[in-house]
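#struct-help
A.M.: can someone run this one for me? Single chain, 310 residues.
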Amino acid sequence: MKTGRSRTIAFQIDAELEGKRIDTLIADAVPELSRARAQRLIESDAVRVAGRPAKASQRGRLGDDVEVVVPDPVASPLLPEAIPLTVLHEDRDVIVIDKPAGLVVHPAVGHRDGTLVNALLHHCQDLSGIGGVLRPGIVHRLDKGTSGVLVCAKNDEAHRVLAAQFKLHSVDREYLALVRGSPNADSGEIDAPIGRHPTDRKKFSTRARTGREAFTEWRVERRLPTLTLLRVRLRTGRTHQIRVHLAASGLPVLGDPVYGGGRALAKAFGLERQALHAAVLGFDHPGSAERCRFESGLPADLQAVLEAAE
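D.P.: on it. Structure tokens below:
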């Protein structure tokens, strides 16, 4: 319900949520809210559990009522910028972009402008506020050095529906990855939890003390003398999942600056970024519920590496 400049989301802790941390169970119960957003709401005294202010670390008890007061979005302070976009599809609910490598998705420290968000604010006049002030319309992200298909929401309901699909892992996501080395098999699966690296907090690792479930499938598309082109399918969507899983399997993504992708070798092929491309994105349209599928072919810089590596 609306309450001035906020709305209240109320639910009861059931058997599935019982025992989880409050920030985690909020993220599980309300798909539009991430765990980080839930933590910020708890810190701002916007969450009540059984009528009392919540703490992020407390555990949910069966039958307790939870109330989350979510402030309404405010106008984005970000400025629209006329950055060219390759639009694969656009309607009243969504816009699907073929993101080039090098384009940051949303503003952050060191990237206050020149981002996809700035471009979207110029392209879509009514986008401000959807999904948050600094990330209007953004449902998922691709790393700066990763190219390919990305969907953005154009209204609050579309954002909610798409966010729920990503949280439930019902979105089809396939990537093309050029990796160093050659796998022994033509296909495989990687089932290894991912969490923060035990010593480097800027990295993720399969050796984390506490990790979240992560599952990746891959198959060989093309073998070259020193490289292999893989088609990779995500069944979960952890941060850096493909890069971490492939590196842990001895097949680091070429040019990966964090997980041992051999940047010198990449530059020898004329490549200035990690060789990872989001080739396929499939989801249920938030307006029509029709299953949509969008594809992007291998970009020119990665195609040039394939030809040079033959």
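A.M.: thanks! The domain at 172-309 is CATH 3.30.2350.10 (Pseudouridine synthase).
D.P.: also worth noting: The CA atoms of residues 112 and 163 lie 24 Å apart.
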